[in-house]
Design brief:
Length: 175
Amino acid sequence: MRRLLAMLAAGAVSVLTALSGAGPALAGEPVWHRIPCGSGAIDLLEVETDEVKGINYLTLAGHLDCADPKQTATFGYATYHEYEPQGVLYDIRLRPYATTAPTPFQETNPLAPGAIGICVVTDHTVRIGCVGVGWDPEVGVTVEHLPTDDPLVDRCVRVVRHGDSMPSPVCGTCW
């Protein structure tokens, strides 16, 4: 009887192992090394339109009141879309802090179609400065400072590998 139970148990383990067999390895979320940093500002926001290409470029410049002497931590730029439940921070948007405060930043990138907000973030829920993006066919693109707790951007940020979850397949360098 014991032998029969042992064989049944071994068979059950084999079946369970086969059914739950390891599939292809899935890439995990990129590692984001963070430090406590809760202050700074976007000091400049500017939109330029390339009329020939029909592309709107946004420049964000400002500072963080933080530094990382070890140069191991990073901050980034999260993009918010209406159809995304979270802000998206692409790993290529992670930037190192300066070794001494303040940490200046400046980026110029095309605006992704459908982006409604962009924030400088230092953690999954810490937004230092944000801008709202308006898309109006008659007026064009408008960009304005936005409170960091505005419902458009008051969402957790997830970090993804560049290319894993792009808002537009033709906009690999967009915000």
